[in-house]
Design goal:
This protein has 475 residues and is mainly alpha-helical. It contains 20 helices and 5 strands. It starts with 13 loop residues before the first strand and ends with a helix.
Length: 475
């Protein structure tokens, strides 16, 4: 997948003290201001005006209103609704009369479902029309929010152009000589969005609208807007339906074929299976990975959260073996050391379990763990190593065995599911609400509808790598 022109690649990020910082966040004194969260509620009144006319006429109507407002009030630099509401009632009246002179008051009537008479009496005096049903007002306002929600949409850019016009009327915009912005400001309303020139004009408009003039958001005002409209509308919950594209094959038959190969190896290498630590670790680890794959297939976990857990475990098991093979020439006893390292990991919970009372229904079976811990040596001779095996972190092992891509994409991605980090929770357990008035929030998947992308082919590819590794050693 190629990066888009709107996003930075990994090389552009700054790595410092365990953080990977985006280029934007490296800019000093940079405070993100959201179009949707912080600015759209302020300008939605202008959007309601524009959407009642064809595009050019709507922009002209809104611009004419703002020009007259600028003539009577030099303090409003950006046409924020909160700024208008904060004016004395007599000043508000003047603005509302200008608006009603140019448009039908019903254009702004939808806003009265949020800004009610008790708190905004002057606004309601002009725009609360009794013949418009509440449900109609909510529907129109919902449509407007959806129309202007995406900050890069054609409609949102039209609205942002109107916002800029207020700054022009207040003489708060100046441009460098040779700047392309003046041309965009002159021609934008009269240029069709399909025109090639708009590929230049639209970014100019969006960048200019984000300039610092009066750009601090009134959080109380905008938060109240979203709360009021959100509580008046219903969720529209959507589960993502994924079409799994991959190799069509019978994985049960594939697993059976691998089982037969393992049986053959055990028969051909019986002595090694009894006495050789290396053979034991290799075949045992491969069987562990194969059993996990078999559980994914037979339990139908390929599109489930546990499928991701499975793939991550299989990958790590494969990398551990490949790493041991890489360093065995320098460490003659590496296979026994690896066994004892793992037994030590088992010993730690055993010692802790002996100090407390374990529920007899627990999956931790103390006598069984005790047998395994004491299987190679008496436990008094077995240390517990709390560090990574061979003091090499998992990522470093991926690099040593030339499997960096496997780490960067699959292992790192599926680790999110193992640890229950938010990205994994969002993908697997939260559904999308397709309602702009709810800011397209997420809803818990309590009906268990959301399925994940099928993981079988990815597991198959790792098992194949693992199998080929074994075949090379025991031809």
């Amino acid at each position: 997948m190629k990066k888009t022109k709107m996003t930075s690649d990994l090389k552009s990020h700054k790595f410092t003290k365990g953080l990977v910082i985006t280029p934007m966040n490296n800019i000093q004194n940079m405070e993100p201001v959201s179009w949707t969260n912080d600015r759209l509620p302020e300008y939605i009144w202008l959007g309601l005006i524009i959407m009642n006319f064809d595009r050019t006429k709507g922009i002209e109507k809104a611009g004419k209103i703002l020009k007259e407002i600028a003539q009577i009030n030099k303090l409003i630099i950006k046409p924020k609704l909160s700024s208008i509401f904060s004016l004395p009632e007599t000043e508000q009246e003047k603005i509302y009369k200008i608006i009603c002179k140019e448009i039908d008051p019903k254009c702004l009537a939808p806003l009265t479902v949020i800004y009610r008479n008790s708190s905004y009496p002057v606004f309601n005096k002009y725009f609360n029309l009794s013949d418009i049903f509440i449900s109609t007002r909510i529907n129109v306002l919902s449509d407007a929010i959806k129309l202007y929600y995406d900050h890069q949409s054609y409609e949102a850019t039209d609205l942002r152009y109107v916002v800029i016009s207020m700054m022009i009327f207040q003489e708060k915009l100046s441009f460098h000589q040779g700047s392309e912005i003046p041309e965009a400001l002159v021609n934008y309303p009269y240029t069709d969005h399909d025109d090639e020139k708009m590929r230049l004009y639209r970014p100019c408009i969006r960048v200019t609208e984000m300039t610092d003039f009066e750009n601090l958001s009134d959080k109380d005002f905008t938060n109240n807007f979203w709360k009021e409209i959100g509580m008046k509308t219903n969720c529209n919950i959507v589960a993502i339906e994924l079409k799994n594209i991959g190799i069509e094959m019978n994985y049960k038959e594939y697993i059976s074929s691998i089982q037969e190969r393992i049986y053959y190896l055990l028969h051909e290498h019986k002595e090694q299976s009894i006495y050789d630590d290396k053979f034991s670790v290799l075949i045992g680890s491969f069987t562990y990975a194969l059993k996990i794959f078999n559980e994914v297939i037979t339990k139908e976990l390929s599109d489930c959260i546990l499928g991701r857990h499975a793939l991550r475990t299989i990958i790590e098991t494969y990398i551990n073996i490949k790493y041991l093979l890489k360093i065995e020439s320098e460490h003659p006893n590496i296979w026994e050391e690896y066994k004892l390292y793992g037994v030590g990991k088992y010993k730690l919970p055993l010692l802790k379990a002996r100090e407390t009372q374990i529920n007899d229904k627990s999956h931790f079976i103390e006598p069984l763990v005790n047998v395994i811990v004491n299987e190679i040596f008496w436990e008094e001779f077995i240390n517990i190593d709390l560090r990574y095996f061979d003091k090499k972190g998992i990522r470093e092992r991926f690099e040593i065995v030339d499997e960096r891509d496997l780490y960067d994409i699959f292992y790192d991605y599926d680790t999110n599911f193992v640890h229950g980090f938010w990205g994994a929770i969002r993908e697997s357990s939260m559904l999308h609400c397709d309602n702009a008035t709810h800011q397209y929030h997420t809803v818990p998947d309590i009906s268990f509808e959301q399925k994940l992308a099928d993981i079988n082919h990815d597991i198959y590819s790792i098992i194949e790598k693992f199998s080929n590794l074994i075949d090379e050693l025991y031809k």
